[in-house]
């Protein structure tokens, strides 16, 4: 990537991460803190934890579409202002209802899709995958850092202090957006990075994409529901106070990363993606069964956490890749947008459903719910088609060749390694699905008149 592109990817990844750090720092400590709020009960605590996912999921695509018209930076700054206001409301609230309002406002700053669209604005087609990878790696690291940092930070400033920290991080994000993120030369729709309303119907009719959307919904529903019960179990079983539970999460996450890396290498290099994928979902089922039957046992509890987070990290890394493989070449951004929306809706359902289960049956009922979700996902995963191992490539089209889009697409399909080709004349781009091992890039670029 060029220096300007590295700056764009790095600064936008930083904007993404300052939001996620605060949001996920709350997870390990929120359930214990929320019991001190007036009007709190397990259901409302779960709703408060998950409600940001509802507003985030509903507004993710609209924010992206609106940014096409009013500007990317305008929408990012607006979203961060909403996030900061919501954080302050939650920090000042002494009632669970007030925290629910604050968390809903936090989610209203749904800037994820806008950030990805701005990454696309600021990078050349041939470097966009690398730039998106920088953002993705940063997000994964932010999640793991936040789970460990949350209890530590809360021990010094409390959970209300974490909400104030989120408000401060929102200001940091605004400053990065304003002064560090380059200004795009022009804003345009990128079918590989953002949702196109006309393509939503086709994506929703794709059964393989729906399986993957349900997968990320289930994964984050399980994660959110589990954090309503796990901190209490760690306290009861290991005698570890909530503020010291980072000593549990840190080694568990390190082991999970050690499991994830070779699993992903095997999946991609040896094309064993379905086996690894189904195995990870089965591991999630096992982890929830262990929590249901043996959560009061020290070794069962720790073993369940290791199995869960190992499988969780494999899923977090492989699901987005599978979505891009299964999506039509010109609908990758639409598929990713719907996938992201279902992820956040899963957070809401996990919080509200987990809270309801905790109120009516205790932690065992929570894990009965998450085990049932995992079993349904396992049935869906077992019947999925073998992944295609195709990747998306964008090839610019010379001015004189864009007129006869159908003819050019037909010729591009004859290029070795090209499985699908869609030419969008008005964008002067060809969207290809290719087998990277066989793809003849020089031939495709020659046909498209690319320099």
Describe the structure.
The structure is a single chain. With 451 residues, this protein is mainly alpha-helical. The chain has three domains: 1-194, MFS general substrate transporter like domains (Growth Hormone, Chain: A); 197-388, Growth Hormone, Chain: A (Up-down Bundle), CATH 1.20.1250.20; 391-448, Alpha-Beta Plaits, CATH 3.30.70. Helices cover 75% and strands 4% of the residues. The chain is built from 15 helices and three strands. A hairpin with a 4-residue loop joins β2 (418-424) and β3 (429-434). α11 (273-294) runs antiparallel to α12. The radius of gyration is 22 Å and the shape is globular. The mean pLDDT is 92.
Provide a compact summary of the structure:
With 451 residues, this protein is mainly α.
Give a quick set of tags describing it.
451 residues; mainly alpha; Growth Hormone, Chain: A; Alpha-Beta Plaits; 4% strand; globular
Question: Secondary structure elements and their pairing?
Answer:
Layout: H1 3-25, H2 27-34, H3 42-70, H4 72-92, H5 96-108, H6 112-121, H7 128-180, H8 200-204, H9 207-238, H10 246-269, H11 273-294, H12 298-326, H13 332-382, E1 391-396, H14 405-412, E2 418-424, E3 429-434, H15 441-448
Antiparallel strand pairs: 1-3, 2-3
Biggest β-sheet: strands ordered side by side in the sheet: 1-3-2
Amount of beta strand: under 5%
N-to-C span? 17 Å
Per CATH, the architecture of the largest domain is Up-down Bundle
CATH superfamily of the largest domain: MFS general substrate transporter like domains
The fold-level CATH name of the largest domain is Growth Hormone, Chain: A
Name the shape in a single word. globular
CATH class of the largest domain: Mainly Alpha
- The helix-strand sequence is HHHHHHHHHHHHHEHEEH
């Amino acid at each position: 990537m060029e220096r300007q592109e590295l700056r764009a990817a790095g600064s936008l990844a930083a904007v993404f991460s300052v939001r996620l750090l605060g949001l996920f720092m709350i997870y390990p400590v929120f359930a214990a803190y929320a019991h001190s709020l007036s009007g709190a009960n397990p259901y409302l605590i779960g709703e408060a934890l998950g409600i940001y996912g509802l507003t985030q999921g509903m507004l993710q695509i609209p924010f992206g579409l609106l940014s096409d018209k009013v500007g990317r930076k305008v929408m990012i700054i607006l979203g961060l202002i909403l996030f900061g206001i919501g954080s302050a409301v939650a920090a000042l609230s002494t009632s669970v209802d007030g925290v629910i309002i604050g968390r809903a406002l936090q989610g209203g700053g749904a800037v994820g899709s806008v950030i990805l669209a701005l990454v696309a604005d600021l990078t050349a087609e041939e470097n966009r995958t690398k730039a998106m990878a920088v953002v993705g790696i940063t997000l994964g690291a932010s999640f793991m850092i936040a789970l460990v940092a949350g209890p530590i930070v809360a021990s010094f400033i409390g959970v209300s202090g974490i909400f104030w920290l989120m408000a401060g991080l929102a200001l940091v994000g605004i400053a990065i957006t304003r002064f560090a993120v380059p200004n795009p030369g022009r804003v345009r729709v990128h079918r590989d990075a953002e949702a196109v309303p006309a393509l939503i119907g086709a994506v929703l009719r794709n059964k393989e994409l729906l399986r993957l959307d349900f997968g990320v919904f289930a994964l984050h529903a399980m994660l959110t529901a589990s954090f309503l019960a796990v901190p209490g179990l760690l306290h009861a079983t290991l005698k570890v106070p909530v503020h010291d539970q980072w000593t549990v999460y840190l080694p568990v996450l390190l082991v999970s990363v050690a499991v994830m890396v070779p699993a992903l290498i095997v999946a991609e290099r040896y094309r064993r993606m379905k086996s690894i994928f189904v195995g990870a979902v089965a591991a999630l089922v096992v982890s929830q069964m262990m929590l249901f039957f043996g959560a009061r046992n020290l070794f069962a509890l720790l073993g369940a956490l290791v199995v869960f987070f190992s499988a969780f990290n494999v899923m977090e890394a492989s699901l987005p890749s599978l979505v891009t493989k299964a999506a039509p070449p010109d609908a990758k951004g639409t598929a990713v947008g719907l996938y992201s929306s279902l992820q956040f809706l899963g957070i809401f359902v996990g919080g509200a459903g987990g809270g309801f289960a905790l109120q009516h049956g205790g932690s065992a009922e929570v894990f009965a719910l998450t085990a049932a979700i995992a079993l349904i996902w396992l049935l869906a995963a077992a019947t999925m088609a073998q992944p295609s191992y195709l990747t998306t490539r964008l090839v610019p089209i010379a001015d004189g060749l864009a007129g006869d889009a159908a003819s050019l697409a037909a010729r591009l399909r004859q290029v070795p390694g090209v499985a699908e080709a869609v030419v969008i004349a008005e964008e002067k781009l060809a969207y290809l699905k290719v087998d990277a091992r066989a793809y003849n890039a020089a031939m495709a670029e020659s046909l498209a008149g690319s320099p």
